[in-house]
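Sample entry was shown:
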Amino acid sequence: MNVDKELDARGLNCPLPILRTKKSLADMTSGQILKVTSTDAGSVKDMQAFANQTGNVLVSQAEVNGEYVFMMQKK
């Protein structure tokens, strides 16, 4: 998958991963992909809820070695 921007939210607790994601998406254009890496287990539910509320698309999510990786496409 082609990633246009990456956000390292490791070590940040709720709600900071979502707030940083929102800020990063604001600087992007429609259709671009943001890769977010987080260590906060709560970010799994938070990213899904954020996508549903904002209309951005959560393209994929995965857990890799205790880190959560999200691919979010800007609406």
User: Anything to note?
Assistant: Residues 5-73 form a domain with the Translation Initiation Factor IF3 fold (CATH 3.30.110.40). The chain has a mean pLDDT of 97. The chain has one domain: 5-73.
